[in-house]
Amino acid sequence: MSTKLNNFQHKDKSSTNGFTFLEILVVTAVLGILSAIAAPSWLALMNNIQLKTAQSEIYLAMRQAQSQAKLQKLNLQVSFREQNGIVQWAVHNTTVSPNNANWNNLDGSVRIDAETTLQQSGSVRRIKFNHLGNVSQPPLGRLTISSKNGGRAKRCVFVSTILGTLRIAQEQETAKSGKYCY
To answer: Which domain holds residue 36?
Structure first.
């Protein structure tokens, strides 16, 4: 029994610990390949999350303007603009100039897309709600956002009816009237 123990101890002392250069190189190459495959998917996922969050903020801003207009019996407007590359929104009285409104920033990675059809005055896009929460000045329209980082992902918020019906949507595979967000 003692010879077996001595042989085991002897082998342990003579063996080398660690990995060979070739083993480290193979593991590094495998990790690099997996990262190259996963990185684009991860970036697309992050872009979609940022777009979805911004879409929710836009939808809630429109809902806030509509509900405050009914509650306070006022004519309110929700305005959108891009200022220094940042999309901003503000809810304010229709008698207040958008320049004097309290602006809130969306995520810096989103932009207003060319598919946007909300009424525009200068650099501000807007939708107005009357004291009943209805759209006070048609035309109706949509605010479409996309990622500054590229990709096809788009998100939009529609004002669908004169009664102020709001809905959300995302990009589709095929265009409808030249638009992909419907």
So the answer is: 19-181
